[in-house]
């Protein structure tokens, strides 16, 4: 499981959050940690979650994104001019 909750990694209060298999997107993207074959990304409303999912999928990982908001990559339009 990867937490991708924005610029500053946050750890929500959910059971198992402190286990060794829960890492931040920053740690994955920097190469600090490796993931298993199956990855769940929690909190992909911001680009870092989507970017991490894409990065891992390109490496052949099976990626599932879980997000509470209605739209993922919600800030994309603000940065790119795309609405």
Describe the structure.
- The chain has 83 residues and is of the alpha/beta class.
- It has helices spanning 25-29, 47-58, 76-80, and strands at residues 2-3, 23-24, 38-42, 62-66.
- It has a 4-stranded parallel beta sheet.
- The longest helix is centred in the middle third of the chain and has 12 residues, at 47-58.
- The protein is globular, with a radius of gyration of 13 Å.
Topology:
Elements lengths: L1 E2 L19 E2 H5 L8 E5 L4 H12 L3 E5 L9 H5 L3
Parallel strand pairs: 1-2, 1-3, 3-4
Key features?
83 residues; single chain; alpha/beta; 4 strands; four-stranded parallel sheet
Largest beta sheet: strand ordering: 2-1-3-4
Task: Tell me what portion of residues adopts beta-strand conformation.
Answer: 15-25%
3D shape: globular
Q: What's the helix count?
A: 3
The helix-strand sequence is EEHEHEH
User: Can you tell me the residue ranges where pLDDT is under 50 for at least 5 consecutive residues?
Assistant: none
In total, the number of strands is 4
SS class: alpha/beta
| Average pLDDT figure | 80
Rg result: 13 Å
Q: What distance lies between the first and last C-alpha atoms, to the nearest angstrom? A: 30 Å
Characterize the largest beta sheet: strand count, sense, and whether it forms a barrel: 4 strands, parallel
Helix content: 25-40%
């Amino acid at each position: 499981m990867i937490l991708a909750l924005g610029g500053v990694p946050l750890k929500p209060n959910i059971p198992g959050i402190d286990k060794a298999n829960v890492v931040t997107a920053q740690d994955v993207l920097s190469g600090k940690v490796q993931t298993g074959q199956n990855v769940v990304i929690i909190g992909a409303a911001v680009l870092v979650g989507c970017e991490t999912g894409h990065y891992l999928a390109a490496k052949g990982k099976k990626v599932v994104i879980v997000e509470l908001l209605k739209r993922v990559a919600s800030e994309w339009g603000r940065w790119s001019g795309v609405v």
